[in-house]
């Protein structure tokens, strides 16, 4: 037996609230949701999908730069800067914060610190991705069941 | 005096002059519209103020220049939400191509300062070199909190600055500010 719409809506509200409470998301994500309207019904999912693709590329490139001997700190810093900017613009608060620390280690040419930050970023990114994908799947289930997506 | 200028986000320069006078002085002051004045002009109430600000930005031709896909998509949507007609490009070179095109109808360029090929300062410098006057208006997008950023921007002919991450009210008020300033100056 499938869950009814009200139950799904409650689940979505709780899941979203938890993502904010645990610091995965900040207000910028709410702004993103407000930018979506009838003329752009898939805006959020499109931007987030783009963010996932870019994240995976940036993480791969940062790992490659760190493996080089000597490590290319300047290039890693450029990637961390870009990642900080894109995570800030979608409201991925925890990813953004790790990027800031990452940049400080790049500036200090601290290889160990950079390695730690990279694995932390990989972890934060995968947690965020799973949580957002779950959020979108709840939204889709609600829509499929003919319900409306509750705003926060 | 200099301290006051800085507090007001302005600056003061001594400009050498060879027409008999030893020198002249340039004062650059940045005035901000107070919310109370804005409300006094429009009808009281949030709704009417909102309509007012949007009508000023409606159909404004904006060229957005940002090399990051995600930032570009979000800022573009923000501008569209404000009623602007947006063209977006991913590099300084593309920006120069669009602006260099005869008959370009772009009124405002939103330019990311930090770009890998040629940065925003260089792009602005080149535009001001081959396009006379203050058109199109150029607004810098930056995550930097450097103190001398305003000075550096103004010295290359940039008219405004928007801090990243970009917010709807931040972008709207800076665009309105430079448009009003532009109307007074030109």
TrEMBL record, chain A:
The gene is LOC100803400. Its main location: cytoplasm. Functions as a two-component phosphorelay mediators between cytokinin sensor histidine kinases and response regulators (B-type ARRs). Plays an important role in propagating cytokinin signal transduction. GO terms for cellular component: cytoplasm; cytosol; nucleus. This is Histidine-containing phosphotransfer protein. Pfam families: Hpt. It comes from Glycine max (Soybean). Residues 40-145 form the HPt domain. GO terms for biological process: cytokinin-activated signaling pathway; phosphorelay signal transduction system. CDD domains: HPT. Keywords: Acetylation, Cytokinin signaling pathway, Cytoplasm, Nucleus, Phosphoprotein, Two-component regulatory system. It is found in: Cytoplasm, Cytosol; Nucleus. The modification Phosphohistidine is found at residue 81. Gene3D superfamilies: HPT domain (1.20.120.160). Histidine-containing phosphotransfer domain (HPt) contains an active histidine that mediates the phosphotransfer. It comes from the Eukaryota. GO terms for molecular function: histidine phosphotransfer kinase activity; protein histidine kinase binding. InterPro entries: AHP1-5/YPD1 (IPR045871), HPT_dom_sf (IPR036641), Sig_transdc_His_kin_Hpt_dom (IPR008207).
TrEMBL record, chain B:
GO terms for molecular function: ATP binding; kinase activity; metal ion binding. One of its GO terms (biological process) is phosphorelay signal transduction system. PROSITE patterns: RESPONSE_REGULATORY. It comes from the Eukaryota. Signal peptide: none annotated. The keyword Ribonucleoprotein does not apply. This is Ethylene receptor. The lineage of its organism: Eukaryota, Viridiplantae, Streptophyta, Embryophyta, Tracheophyta. The gene is ETR2.
């Amino acid at each position: 037996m499938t869950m009814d719409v009200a139950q799904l809506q409650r689940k979505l509200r709780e899941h979203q609230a938890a993502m904010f409470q645990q610091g995965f998301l900040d207000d910028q994500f709410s702004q993103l949701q407000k930018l979506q309207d009838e003329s752009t019904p898939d805006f959020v999912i499109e931007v987030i999908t783009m963010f996932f693709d870019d994240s995976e590329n940036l993480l791969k490139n940062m790992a490659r730069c760190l493996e080089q001997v000597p490590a290319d700190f300047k290039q890693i810093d450029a990637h961390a800067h870009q990642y900080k900017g894109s995570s800030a613009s979608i409201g991925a608060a925890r990813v953004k914060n790790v990027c800031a620390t990452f940049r400080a280690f790049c500036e200090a040419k601290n290889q160990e610190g950079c390695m730690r930050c990279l694995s932390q970023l990989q972890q934060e990114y995968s947690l965020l991705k799973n949580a957002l994908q779950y959020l979108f799947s709840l939204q889709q289930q609600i829509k499929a069941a003919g319900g409306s997506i509750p705003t926060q | 005096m200099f301290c006051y200028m800085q507090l007001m986000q302005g600056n003061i320069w001594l400009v050498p002059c060879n027409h008999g006078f030893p020198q002249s002085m340039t004062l650059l002051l940045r005035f901000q519209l107070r919310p109370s004045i804005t409300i006094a002009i429009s009808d009281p109430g949030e709704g009417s103020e909102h309509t007012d600000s949007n009508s000023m930005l409606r159909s404004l031709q904006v060229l957005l220049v940002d090399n990051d896909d995600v930032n570009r998509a979000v800022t573009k949507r923000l501008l569209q939400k404000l009623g602007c007609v947006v063209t977006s490009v991913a590099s300084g070179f593309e920006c120069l191509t669009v602006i260099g095109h005869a008959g370009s109808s772009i009124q405002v360029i939103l330019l990311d300062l930090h770009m890998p090929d040629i940065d925003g300062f260089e792009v602005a410098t080149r535009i001001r070199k081959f396009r006379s006057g203050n058109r199109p208006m150029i607004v810098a997008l930056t995550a930097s909190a450097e103190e001398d950023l305003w000075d550096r921007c103004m010295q290359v002919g940039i008219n405004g600055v928007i801090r990243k991450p970009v917010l709807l009210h931040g972008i709207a008020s800076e665009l309105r500010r430079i448009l009003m300033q532009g109307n007074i100056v030109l």
